[in-house]
Amino acid sequence: MMKQILLPLLLLAGSAAQAQQPAAPATVIAVPPLTSPDSGTKGNQMLQVGWEATQLIVADLGSTAEFAPLRPSRDDYYSYPEVTAPMFGKWRSAGAKILVTGFVQNRSDGRLTFGCYVYDVEKGRELARKGFVLTPGEWRRAAHRCSGVAYKAIVGTPGAFDSRIAYVAETGVGDARMRRVAVMDSDGYNHRFLTAGGSMALTPRLSPKGDRVAYVSFTGDKPNVRVIDLGSGQERPLIPADSISFAPRYSPDGSRILFSMMLGSNSDIYLVNADGGLPQRLTTSPGVDTDPSFSPDGSKIVFESDRGGSQQLYMMNADGSGERRISFGNGSYASPEWSPDGQWIAFAHRGADGKRIGVLKADGTGGALLTSGPADEGPSWAPSSREILFQRASGVGRSGLYRIALGGGEPRQVAVPQNASDPDWSGVAE
Amino acid sequence: MPNRFLWLSAIVLVATTASAQLPGLRRYTPADNARRPAPAVPLLGIEALRADFAAQSGGTTVYFTSDTAVLSPPARTVLSAQAAWLRRHPEVVARIEGYGDGGDTRDHALAVGARRAAEARNYLLLLGVPAAQVSITSWGKERPGLGRAVTILVS
Questions:
Q1: List of residues 6+ apart from B151 with CB closer than 8 A
Q2: CA proximity to A313, closest of A301, A325, A300
Q3: Superfamily classification of domain A31-155
Q4: Mean pLDDT over the full length of chain B
């Protein structure tokens, strides 16, 4: 048993996931400038918005492993009738396999209608279409959603484009290091700080709708879970703050929060309504049980425990029954997170070569380490289930956010204004 | 008459402000008076109490081996002395701050720090220190001072 799991872990590190889910070569995709049915001054304004959105869609799709977009040119005017009746022959000879067209239309109420169409160029047929009505200020969001329509039509899973990332922004050194919860769009726009920095903040977790953040605050010099409402900016303790609580994570429907709480010298996993109330205790082992994460259907929970001597991953039913260990390799396994598609569990692995990010299949087989370490932790899935966001420390007080594809390869750094840790990637906003 | 009243108020104000700034003086609520005897050593400031506590206990800090919360014999010696001191000073409130290990993952380190603090507190309670006199917290791996539990006098 031991050897069967260890072998892929050691020999195929970084490529086992790829072997199981072969990465197809990037699909060439054409995105001509979004056009507009409007005329005159309004029409020109809509074409301008359309061009900005086109560039963003191209950037979105180009940021994925699956797509290689053709470079769009503003001079290639695209007519409105062509949106729904493309000239496939022209795109075939340009080498495109997929075509994304669209338009921006001004509405009488001042908002804009964004139309988005996806075509299979070779077969000459439509794959998907979707319309969005948003304010002019939300054009980035419309473009991200259009990218998502294209991604989902081809890849099958939701794209990560219209989503948010919460993380901890860090400045200063030693006891004076300031750590604040920050949130931004997944492309780095709309960055803002949610906490003032008067007391230390750790491990922010977005609600599935992206409207709340649960995190660990050191108000009163004691770690305790608090919840921020992003709309109102209001903040409250999840449970009465006289106990030590940490490691919060939302249920898939956002109605409940899993977390760890100390009772004496024992850390166990609890479940409580997102609006507060009496927590339900799910684990009772004398070890440290923490970092719980729901399966996307809400029926199971994966968590870490050192009940067997070292940190390992365990699984149980949502009511705390049926606990069983699922990780058996060398070293210790921590911080599990279930992928949104339900197939994978990401984790941080601690071994002789430091801390690295890895994945297991949800049934506990097929372990693989994706990153090289030596100080990687805090994995969080992209909404696509095809990438993992994590933190990498690169020296005392220096850390950043990186993303790595499930197929392995070089991690790419995510641009943020300060040192950063504890990333959490939300689902796709609807 | 209004003048005299003003002067009187000013004097009362100065007096209360001055007394509030005197080191070691704390305001007792009726509940405090009912529960606690007067301090054996009167009017010691918190800094002086901390120095005395550290000197008499052989240190404020106990150390743990990696990833454990087991109290070693030297740790028990320090905690025994801390317990004796805290029993002599029932008016002083203490907090034990536990730290995890640097190589650990964040949440496990928080739990390990809390566990170390809890084990140290349990030992103090075993030796007769009232539960209400000692609280715990954990800094995980988030602050310098890894692998230990530190007893801090807070008031």
A1: B53, B57, B60, B61, B82, B94, B95, B96, B120, B134
A2: A325
A3: TolB, N-terminal domain (3.40.50.10070)
A4: 81
Four-way CATH pick for B44-153: 1.20.1440.230, 3.90.1150.10, 3.30.1330.60, 3.40.50.1370: 3.30.1330.60
DSSP collapsed to 3 states, B37-97 = CCCCCCCCCHHHHHHHHHHHHCCCEEECCCCCCCCCHHHHHHHHHHHHHHHHCCCCCEEEE
User: Could A355 and B105 be called an inter-chain contact, meaning their C-beta atoms sit closer than 8 Å?
Assistant: yes
Question: pLDDT per residue over B72-127, tens digit each?
Answer: 999 999 999 999 999 999 999 999 999 999 889 999 999 999 999 999 999 999 99
CATH class of the region A2-20+162-425: mainly beta
Here the tokens at position B150 are: 């530190």
* Nearest neighbour of A334 by CB, restricted to B97, B105, B119: B105
Residue A56 Cα distances to A61, A139, A141, B126, B151, angstroms: 9, 10, 10, 65, 55
Determine the length of chain B.
Answer: 155
- Which of A175, A244, A332 is most worth mutating to test chain B (most B CB atoms within 10 A of its CB)? A244
Query: Which phi-psi region, left, alpha or beta, contains residue A327 (left: φ > 0; alpha: ψ -120 to 50)?
Result: beta
Question: Does the ipTM exceed 0.95?
Answer: no
Any idea where the domains of chain A sit in the sequence? 2-20+162-425, 31-155
Mean pLDDT of A128-153: 94
CA distance A132 to B81: 70
Question: Considering only CB atoms, which chain B residues are within 8 Å of A202?
Answer: 106, 110, 140, 142
